[in-house]
Amino acid sequence: MSKLSLWRTLALALGLATAATGASAVSLSLQAQGPAIVGQGLDVKVVLEQPFAALAGDELLLSFGFGIGLDATQARIKGISVASGWDDDGALLGDGSMAGSRFPALANLAQAAVELGTLHLDVLSAGTLTLMLSSQPGNPNQGLSYLYSGNRALQASLQLSAVPEPSSLALGLLGGAGLAGLMRRRQANGVCAAQKL
To answer: CB-side exposure of 11: number of CA atoms within 13 Å?
Structure first.
C-alpha cells in the first residue's frame, strides 16, 4: 500500500469517526400515519429529532436530502410533500429522493423535533414493508447541511406489516368457508352412497 493510499485511508477513517461522533444525538424518525393496508394509501412523516443537539447556539440548518429505499413489489411512492417552510428540492436529486432547503435557514431554537415532510405511498402487497431513508457520507447534496458544522449523513428505516384489504380478506374467508362446506357435503354423500351398497 502506498503512503498516499495509507494517508487517504486514515483521513477517511478519521472523517467518518468524527462525523459519527458529532452526529450521535441527531436522528431521523419515520412515523406511519395509519395501518399499511393493501390497496390503500399510507402516509409516513419524516421528522428530524434533536436537529441541533451538541451544536453551537448560532448554528443554522440549511437543507436536507435523502435517498428513498423501497421494495417496488411492496409499495410505490405516490408523492412527496416537504413540510411548510421548506422548498422542495427533490427534482434536483432525481427520482427516489426527498430533499428540501429553506431561506432564511432554520435557526437553532433548541427544537426537540422538526418535521421535514411526508412520503405518500401506495401499499401493493401483503407482508413486511420496509422503507429506508439514507444519505451518503461526503455527498454535499445529501444528509443535513448546516451552515457552520457542514454536512451530516443520516439514515432511518421503518418496517410495517402490510395486511390485505378488509374486503379481500372477507372474500377469501367466505370462499374458504364455501369450499369447506362443499367438501363436507361431498364426504357426506360419499358415506351415504357407501352405506347403500
So the answer is: 7
CA dihedral 18, 19, 24, 26 (to 10 degrees): 150
Per the CB < 8 A criterion, the answer to whether 58 and 33 are in contact is: no
What phi and psi, each to the nearest 5 degrees, are found at residue 163? -110, 155
Alpha-carbon dihedral angle through residues 61, 158, 131, 63, given to the nearest 10 degrees: 0
What is the radius of gyration, based on Cα positions, of the chain? 26
Mean pLDDT along residues 126-154:
93
Q: Please state which architecture CATH assigns to domain 26-177.
A: Sandwich (2.60)
Are the C-beta atoms of residues 74 and 132 closer than 8 Å to each other?
no
Predicted confidence (pLDDT) per residue in 43-86, tens digit: 999 999 999 999 999 999 999 999 999 999 999 999 999 999 99
